[in-house]
Structure formats: C-alpha cells, structure tokens
Write a structure and sequence with these properties.
CATH topology of the largest domain: Uridine Diphospho-n-acetylenolpyruvylglucosamine Reductase, domain 3
Strand content: 15-25%
Radius of gyration: 22 Å
C-alpha cells in the first residue's frame, strides 16, 4: 500500500520557535521518507490541508525554529521534519563520510560524531537547530563553515517531485546563505546531509576566544593534553575544542529555553576595502576581518554596541546585555515587536556608520 502524505492540522507553534513568539498554523510532521512522493502529489493538487485558505497556502519547512520570526497567523503551511538516523555512509583514504537525517538535532549530531572518533565539526558545537536546516543557513562559527565539511545534500524539489543529490558546488553556498534559502520557502525539502570528516584532522583555533580559552591550555601555557613535555605546544583534542566552544557559547549567549532568542539576529556586514579603511580611521576600535575577495567583514555586534543598543530594550524585546548581536524576548513579545526593534537597530547603525545590517532570521508572515 502506498505511503500516505502527512496530514496538516491547526497547531500551536509557540514552543516550536526559539524566540517563543505566539503563533498557530496548519502543521504536518514528516516521519517517513516514503511519504514524500505522496506529499508532492498532494501539494501539486492543492489537497491535504484543513479547510480554508491554508489548503493552497505556500509551504514552509521548519527545522528547530531557531532562525525564524513567526507572525501570529502565518499564511503558510508548516512541514516539520522528524526524520532521524546517523550512519557511516562511506569511507575513503582521507575521510569518513557520515550521513545524518534532516530531523537530527545539530548539536547532538556533532557530539555523536566525536564519540565515534569522527572529528571535524567541533567548532560548530551548540548551534541550535537541526541537521537539515544547517545547509540552508550555511551555519558557521569559530573559523569553520558547514560547506567546508559537506560531502552532499539529499533533497527533494517539491515543485518538480524529484529527489536530487547536490554536491557543495551545486548548493550555491555563501555567507549564511545557500540555494535552499534563495529559492524561497516551499521548494526544497532536505532529507539527509552527508559530511566528509577528515582523518588527518587538525584543530582550527584562529578565533582569539577559542585560541585563548583556558580549557585548551595546560599549566605551562601549551595547548591541550597528552604527549609533550609541560609547557611545550600541544594539539588539543577535538573533544576539548568541543567543550571549549560550548563553554564560550554558554557564557556569551542566552539559553533560548530561559530567554527567548534566535541567536545572532544580523549578519556580519561585508563592505569594500576603501569604506572599511575610512571607518577604521574614524572609529579606531572597529573590528575588521579581511576576506579572500578583497572586501572586509565587520563585526555586527560591535557596530550595534557602539550605536547604543547593547542591553537596551524596546517594549518586551531588546538586545542582549552580554552580546549585542542577539535579540531577546523578555516575555510577551510578538513578531511586530521583534521587527520594530530590528528596524530601529538597523536605522541607528546605518546613521552612525553608513553600514546596512541584514537580518539573519526568515520572517514567516
């Protein structure tokens, strides 16, 4: 008997978005890949929705809800992906190819890989969300971006009703961007993601917060544990880097379960070298990161703090007191409150620095 498509029903989404915004929508849960062909047919025919406008509303694939601002009654049908499973899919002379289902929690997946002796993702520890959502945003932290470890993405084009295996150069990756994000909600349904994790592993410790973390230094000032004489530089283990990243993130960033937030709310802007040089002349403390293409990335959190928004509130929302880049819900906020604060921050940064901040989260209206 052919698998039946998941059925949409009216559900509460407040616990399904990390900002904790009140919302209700037509929601279905995908637990079995075999149901996807029937889902494609139902979507094409405008079936499988509750009565009313949701029956032909656009589809939005929701991961962990950590990168979305949801209106109270979005004009979308929501598909939650609950596919689970992790396996060693293949092995080459240089890499372990590890596959994870899209519904796997990202942080748990990274932890599991380390426990199996497959390092390479430790710099991306404690990032909220799911494995399937990670390529959409091309997540990154502490000197590593997801596309640098990606082998392939297995995804359905729901409009064409076909499954594809996409290599990294076919995913259109950019800074916090990808083909899956640019093509718009409702086209791509990622079901599995494969990672090429290096056997000849070396640590990535370029970021000062990580390089100088006390958990990565022994009493003599060297790195890590095991093997060398005290005081000599030593390579930290992947697990110690994982633990250090977790510690840094917990100290800097609020827990969404305690204080609603969507992580970094704005992208770090990338500007021309001449503009960056002029800003550095005017603002000596400006944090700049030269890029391979000659442009310069700025620290959005520093710009927001200098514009006076660190720890400042606007109604029920505000920018976090320890990390100005993180917009938080102090309680009772709705999507309009979040967008009003984001607009005010963006306007003040543009006025002071002439730099336009781009929002990271998707607005589901």
């Amino acid at each position: 008997m052919p698998a039946q498509p998941p059925v949409f029903s009216d559900q509460d989404l407040q616990a399904r978005n990390t900002l904790g915004l009140p919302a209700r929508a037509a929601v279905a849960v995908l637990e079995d890949e075999s149901a996807i062909p029937a889902l494609c047919e139902a979507l094409a025919a405008g079936r499988n929705g509750p009565e009313g406008r949701e029956a032909d509303a656009p589809l939005f694939v929701l991961g962990g809800g950590s990168n979305v601002v949801i209106e109270a009654r979005p004009h979308h049908r929501i598909l939650r992906v609950a596919l689970r499973g992790i396996r060693l899919w293949d092995e080459t002379a240089g890499h372990w190819i590890v596959e994870a289902a899209a519904g796997e929690p990202w942080h748990g997946f990274v932890d599991h890989c380390l426990s199996q002796g497959w390092p390479g993702l430790e710099n991306l520890a404690l990032i909220p969300g799911t494995v399937g959502a990670a390529p959409v945003q091309n997540i990154g932290a502490y000197g590593l971006e997801l596309d640098q470890r990606l082998h392939s993405v297995v995804a359905w084009d729901l409009r064409a009703g076909r499954e594809y295996e996409l290599r990294p150069d076919e995913c259109g990756f950019a800074y916090r961007d990808s083909l899956f994000k640019r093509d718009g909600a409702g086209r791509w349904l990622i079901v599995r993601v494969r990672f090429a994790l290096p056997k000849a592993w070396t640590p990535r410790l370029g970021y000062p917060d990580l390089r100088d973390h006390p958990g990565l230094r022994d009493e003599g000032g060297g790195f890590g544990a095991g093997g060398a004489a005290r005081g000599a530089p030593r390579t930290p283990s992947p697990r110690r880097i994982f633990d250090a990243v977790c510690d840094i993130r917990r100290r800097k960033l609020p827990d969404p379960a305690v204080l609603g937030n969507a992580g970094s709310f704005f992208k770090n802007p990338v500007i021309g070298a001449s503009q960056a040089a002029e800003l550095a002349r005017r603002f000596p403390g400006l944090r700049t990161y030269p890029q391979a293409d000659g442009r310069v990335k700025l620290a959005a959190g520093w710009l927001i703090e200098q514009a006076g928004w660190k720890g400042r509130r606007l109604g029920p929302v505000g920018m976090h007191e320890r990390q100005a880049l993180v917009l938080v819900n102090h309680g009772g906020a709705q999507a309009a409150d979040v967008l009003a604060l984001a607009g005010a921050v963006r306007a003040d940064v543009e006025k002071r620095f002439g730099v336009d901040l781009e929002r990271e989260p998707v607005v589901l209206d």
